[in-house]
Amino acid sequence: MGWFKRLKDGIQTATKFKKETPDGLWHQCVGCSATNTFKELKENFFKCPHCNYHERIGSHDYFDLLFDGKYDELLTEFESYDFLEFKDLKKYKKRLEVARTKTGLSDAISIASGKLGKKPVIIAAMDFSFIGGSMGSVVGEKIARSIDLCIELHVPLLILSKSGGARMMESAFSLMQMAKTAAKLSELAKAGIPYLSVMTDPTTGGVTASFAMLGDVNISEPGALIGFAGPRVIKEAIKQDLPEGFQRAEFLLEHGFLDFIVDRSDLKARLDDLLTHLVAA
After folding, report:
1. CB contact at 8 A, 206 and 174
2. If residue 95 lies in a helix (H) or strand (E), which one and from where to where?
């Protein structure tokens, strides 16, 4: 009938490019299977009103949520391409074209500058809808240049991670972004400029093993999957059952990998408080 449809990847609409309601007036929660209208989700920060499950949202949704009404998008000229041209990876060029058409994005990360709580800040936000939020050369370069801008302007950096890991279609070039982003963040630290890392569902692979876990403060949304290899891979490797809630945000907080878990509705206020203390320090 078209009244109801489960969205496989959650709410991924980038509001700057597409504001209309997704197919179906109703949406079934992945967490509790409750049925909610899209309007109810949107008014509740794209969280289930019944179980508080945080649906996946896009980079521009976070920009709308965190900035004080206005922001300028930066570094939009960078786009990935099939520079290796491996015979077995000819589909990569097509996947890039499809991803750009489907999402309206140039790559898996968007950069914007503006004010959060009247404080200037640069925010880099990833999009899982663009080839699983995979980290390729463009993602690494945009983060590196964002750091350069933060140092030049002396403003804090906030990165919202949402990724399946390194983009294997770019081979070793994608893995090199781990060292590249980590090295650039060390420059930011030497300049005495705060870096806040917010991990959302999912944050995995090379992203977790590099910039996502290197924040001065590491934050997560509730229930986010955070880890390097997935739970199924780890279970098969060690031949043992994993603890309940393994690799979820609450498990990581209990074991010292996170500083805070923050509900999306409180995220802007908490970040504002942290920036007030860090910038003052």
Report:
1. yes
2. helix 91-103
- Given the structure tokens 């400029």, which residue do they identify? 193
For the chain, give every domain's residue range.
1-55, 57-280
Q: Torsion-angle region of residue 239: left (phi > 0), alpha (psi -120 to 50) or beta? A: left
Contacts of 255 (CB under 8 A, 6+ apart): none
pLDDT for 86 equals 77
Both tokens of 64, joined, read 């709308």
pLDDT tens column, 73-92: 999 999 999 999 877 666 89
Q: Is 135 helix (H, G, I), strand (E, B) or coil?
A: strand
Distance CA 60, CA 13 (A): 8
Rounded-to-integer distance, Cα 13 and Cα 82, Å: 26
Residue 146 neighbours by CB distance under 10 Å: 25
What CATH code would you report for 57-280?
3.90.226.10
| Closest by CA position to 123, among listed 186, 68, 226, 196 | 196
* Confidence (pLDDT) at 15: 45
Strands 109-116 vs 26-28: parallel, antiparallel or unpaired: unpaired
